[in-house]
Design brief:
heterotrimer, A alpha/beta (266), B mainly alpha (307), C mainly alpha (286), A: 266 residues, alpha/beta, Rossmann fold, 9 helices, 10 strands, C: 286 residues, mainly alpha, 11 helices
Chain lengths: 266, 307, 286
């Protein structure tokens, strides 16, 4: 863990060695209702470490709700969630981030008046003790800036570092979304419709970016674009009205009669 | 940071040089403006940078002022003691109130801070045995610092206030250019994003609240010494509203803007009061006009904008 | 403390809460529909009182005062909303700050027109005196306040639950965008609710003017009470405003009677407790 020894470097397990064959994410009978509306019903999910898993389903199937439950923005009504064998069911989002979880948002959720670089700086600081430094200017933390630039480069935005986010194109903003999530080198990455609103060309770029992600990282991806989803993910979970109706390799799911009915018959 | 420091030193030096040339009245106005600037900057940290609209900031200002008044007149406590007392009193008030207010956001936060501000006003008004109630506490002596010049004169006291204002400005500037300060702006722009990035948003907001309140108390300390008299007026809602106006008119999220806004309002208030008693009316009208006709920058900045 | 004391204090608390309800119900509904906090609401209360005062001086009629105040302040409310707040539609913080500007203007105007002396609105003869129940005597005027608040509460509840207009208001409170989507004229609803709130506040001002008095500063003095009521009861909720007003009225009254030096404190502590348990208030919705 040589990297972690340097002052201020976030220590995440992507840098540390994770055990092969461990389970990154486990959901046990997770349910969530809003009054009478059941958004998630008895969802079981087991995602081995290193897997690329697509979560698909028609609109309203509860995909984003599931992500919000995993990320901690929503609390479960019942059930348990384990992240790398640690129970996180009651933890708030920032604690889950500290355990190596990162996410993107379906509706771009950036810091509009700050520059792309500043956005990344915030992401890089997030798990660093430096975020509490009050009496030293940011310039005194060159390692933060270096990491932020590195992140921008990784998503292809290093030429746009000084541009305020609200002046970036939609495609660039989506790229930055991913960048923010990658900045702290997470172990589990939740991607909520990364290609939402992108042109076919931009979607291609995004798909390339996603394919270049660290193979040690576990990725869950919600995606409407079936082609991209199945291209990136080897494993698929299908949701319908808050329930898991199919779960398996992409071949299995493609040929599942229930899934075909929902997507083609409905 | 370096550039800001140079500008600040220039302005400070300019004020220091010009001061002896001014007659007493403008000099006292300038002193008042510096105190108001400290209050406005403290609120800017909370409102402009963190995005938390507080309508009760006069509470901490007043608590700081009252602490000095009570200690200096009742117990003859010296400057150091009064300063510490004022900071502690304001800081503790902010720490307690923060526990209540930080749970809320937006409109709820506005209302809770307003109500809490009124609590302090009520205490100032009704806890007569401590605060002399409506009569206020008068006779606060100028501090005795062992200097060859007496601080009763407007010029020496102006210099003291100038030093205090520069200290406050320096502290706040360090804060807003630090990683912590960037975090506050992030919270203003998107709390959910910050949570997802690993920030304990509540804690950061709470810290900002307490620091902001303590600095407001710092301003209050100098107000007590400047004015020689502290009353519930210093804790009332109108005072909180004036502070908010200073920040909003000056340009939230810039520190310098609110300081200028504070000076503007102090001068305007004193100037207008010579000709008419209708200061509040004019203030209200100016404010509405500014909100309606100012470029989106003014209000857009309240939601996002300036850094 | 004799039982006389407790009965009297409880009743006083209830009657004060009744007055607060008139103020808080409007404030709460305005927030529910427009998502803004009207910081000029205390001003409406005060202006209502002053207008009522003038009318009573001119005509001697309390009823005329009630009507005139409601109409005058209602018109002011409509003017404020239509001519100023509407222009910032969607910018809730800006609208809230604008209401502050108006509050300052109203406060100064009132000072200009009516001067700095405190006044009391003379209550009509039939409402003076006491009502005797089981050996205890209750000031008739306070009974009147409670009855008015009950009436207003029932009428409001009926209007909201049983009329089409009420249904539209409830829809707008629930989800303004959705309501717009199904064809409800939300700006018109906003205007109507704002005007209604202003009228209720003005009524409160006239009624309160007879037993609390009308004086400069009444606006900012009553505002935090209204705020505590809606914070505790939950913004946008009528039952919340009812329960909240009762609670605040009782707490404040007992606080003043038992701990006069710390009266605002006795208001603040329970508010703290309730907020600690339920950040959006007892019946609150975000």
């Amino acid at each position: 863990m040589g990297e972690g020894a340097r002052e201020g470097t976030p220590v995440t397990a992507a840098a540390a060695g994770s055990r092969e064959g461990s389970v990154a994410l486990r959901l046990d009978r997770v349910s969530r209702s809003f009054g009478g509306l059941v958004a998630a019903h008895d969802v079981d999910l087991v995602v081995p470490q290193g897997e690329r898993r697509a979560v698909i389903g028609p609109n309203g199937a509860g995909k984003t709700t599931l992500f919000n439950l995993i990320a901690g923005e929503l609390t479960v009504s019942s059930g348990a969630i384990h992240l790398f064998d640690e129970e996180i069911t009651g933890l708030p989002p920032h604690r889950r981030a500290g355990l190596g979880l990162a996410r993107t948002f379906q509706i771009t959720n950036l810091f509009p008046s700050l520059s792309a670089l500043e956005n990344c700086l915030l992401a890089v600081q997030g798990l660093d003790r430096a975020k509490f430094a009050m009496l030293r200017p940011l310039e005194r933390f060159p390692h933060l800036r270096a990491q932020a630039l590195h992140t921008l480069r990784a998503v292809g935005l290093d030429g746009r570092a000084a541009v305020p986010v609200r002046n970036l194109s939609h495609g660039e903003q989506r790229q930055l979304e991913i960048g923010l999530a990658l900045a702290a080198r997470p172990r589990l990455l939740l991607l909520d419709e990364p290609t939402a609103g992108l042109s076919p060309g931009e979607s291609r770029l995004m798909a390339d970016l996603l394919r270049r992600l660290d193979p040690a990282m576990t990725v869950l991806i919600i995606e409407h674009d079936m082609d991209i989803a199945l291209e990136i993910a080897g494993h698929v979970t299908v949701l319908h009205y808050g329930r898991v109706i199919a779960d398996g390799s992409r071949e299995d799911v493609k040929s599942d009669p229930l899934v075909r009915e929902i997507y083609l018959g409905a | 940071m370096g550039r800001r420091a140079i500008w600040a030193c220039l302005v400070g030096a300019l004020l220091a040089i010009v001061a002896p040339l001014l007659p007493a009245y403008p000099l006292t106005l300038l002193t008042q403006a510096l105190i108001a600037a400290m209050l406005a900057m403290s609120l800017d940290l909370l409102l402009g940078y963190t995005g938390l609209p507080s309508l009760g900031h006069a509470a901490y200002f007043g608590v700081g002022a009252y602490a000095v008044a009570i200690l200096a007149t009742g117990r003859q406590v010296g400057f150091a003691g009064c300063l510490v007392g004022g900071l502690l009193a304001a800081g503790i008030t902010a720490a307690v109130f923060g526990l209540l207010a930080i749970r809320a956001t937006g409109t709820y936060f506005l209302m809770i801070t307003l109500a809490l501000g009124m609590v302090i006003w009520g205490l100032a008004f009704r806890w007569v045995s401590l605060t002399q109630g409506d009569n206020g506490i008068s006779g606060v002596p100028r501090p005795e610092l062992g200097l060859p010049w007496s601080l009763s004169g407007p010029l020496p006291f102006f210099y003291l206030t100038l030093v205090a204002a520069m200290v406050a400005w320096a502290l706040l500037t360090l804060l807003v250019t630090s990683p912590f300060g960037l975090g506050l702006v992030g919270i203003r722009e998107s709390e959910s994003r910050m949570r997802a990035l690993g920030y304990n948003v509540w804690w950061h907001k709470y810290l900002a609240f307490v620091i902001s309140g303590t600095i407001a108390g710092f301003a209050g300390v100098f107000w007590a010494y400047y004015n020689g008299f502290v009353s519930p007026v210093d804790t009332q809602l109108v005072t909180s509203v004036e502070a908010l106006l200073m920040v909003a008119l000056g340009g939230p999220g810039t520190l310098v803007g609110p300081a200028v806004g504070a000076a503007l309002i102090v001068f305007l208030k004193n100037f207008i009061s010579v000709y008419t008693k209708r200061w509040l009316l004019i203030l209200g009208a100016v404010y509405i006009g500014a909100i309606l006709f100012a470029p989106r920058g003014l209000l857009g900045a309240l939601g996002r904008g300036r850094r | 403390m004799s039982s006389e004391f407790w009965i009297a204090q409880t009743f006083n608390g209830i009657s004060y809460g009744a007055l607060l309800f008139l103020l808080a119900s409007g404030l709460s509904l305005i927030f529910g529909v427009m998502r803004i906090v009207n910081l000029a609401h205390g001003s409406y209360f005060m202006l209502g009182g002053y207008v009522g005062l003038s009318i009573v001086w001119r005509t001697g009629s309390f009823t005329a005062a009630l009507v005139a105040a409601a109409v005058a302040v209602g018109l002011i409310g409509i003017g404020m909303e239509r001519l100023f707040l509407q222009r910032l539609a969607g910018q809730t913080l800006g609208q809230v700050l604008m209401t502050i500007g108006f509050a300052l203007i109203f406060q100064d105007l009132a000072l200009l027109i009516w001067g700095g002396d405190p006044y009391t609105i003379p209550a009509p003869k039939i409402l003076q005196g006491v009502v005797r129940v089981r050996g205890s005597s209750f000031p008739t005027y306070r009974v009147f306040i409670v009855l008015v608040a009950l009436l207003v509460g029932i009428l409001l509840w009926l209007a909201l639950e049983r009329t089409r207009a009420g249904a539209m208001i409830r829809a707008a409170v629930d989800d303004g965008e959705m309501a717009r989507g199904i064809g409800i004229n939300v700006p018109m609803i906003s205007l109507a609710v704002f005007a209604l709130g202003a009228c209720l506040a003005a009524l409160g001002g006239v009624i309160g003017g007879a037993f609390l008095g009308v004086f400069p500063g009444a606006d900012f003095e009553v505002l935090p009470y209204a705020f505590v009521v809606v914070i505790v009861g939950g913004l946008g909720s009528l039952p919340g405003a009812m329960v909240g007003s009762l609670l605040v009225g009782l707490l404040d009254n007992f606080g003043k009677a038992l701990f006069p030096e710390l009266s605002y404190f006795t208001l603040f502590a329970p508010m703290a407790v309730i907020l600690a348990l339920r950040p959006t208030g007892l019946f609150g919705r975000l």
